[in-house]
Design a protein that fits this description.
Length: 274
Amino acid sequence: MHRLSTAFLGLLLLSVTAVRPAVAQNGSPFQVTHAGRFQFVADYRFTQSKQAGIELESMAQKLWSELMIPDKRTPVRVYLFSTQKAFSRYVRQHIPTLTQADTNRTAMFLLRNGTPYIFAVATSELMLNLRHEFVHVLLNTSHENLPIWLDEGIAEFYETKDGRQQEFSQLLSRQNRLFWKPSIGRLERLKTMSQLGIVEYAEGWSWVNLLMQGSTSSRQVIPRYLADLRKGVQSPSISERVAAAGIDAVGSWNQRYRSRRRRLATRPTSGAAK
């Protein structure tokens, strides 16, 4: 699970120095490949640019069909690093305001003068991370003042092809046993990335998952909210829209994760007969 190892750093755009494909940390030139709108700039031989471009474009089409998010076809520059050390050194050099925790992430997205950049380490979860960060690109090039919980929740939901996040489901099932209660309103009060911990990431994903896989009225909540946000009009929040639609959000949430807990409890343990 990479939740706290990725980040949207759009607010850092004013502190970013010139980012260009010059020389990698190992002294060799970056290798540049193209796939549609994507320019992949890697410090190693990246041979999956065409495949990655196709998958990311397919995801963009899915966001359009399900969330009605307009795609401005903005060119995206993707920097890829063979090691965490190379990634950390490069982003620290070009984004001086980054914290140590930020430089230890495995992927991040930022906007500079309207141009989206993705930085990522070539881990086994590279494609998952690229999907996550490209969702941020699509959201933040079309919307201003997007709530951070919704930005991350949508990115978590669409980074996997089926919207599932097993580790999040298990975490929320454990939370469900405690005095902790789910609340969209609480998430809506979060204003900075530093306020998001693993539970907030998980809960944000869970609400997007619940609404986008629910009834017809549930599936309309987020797309209509985003449409109003693009118009720049004062409009009800997600929690207010859920209440107005008569959706029993908390009841549905509890039912889903209590059911999840029961399924986990009845699942055969490792080594049991199958």
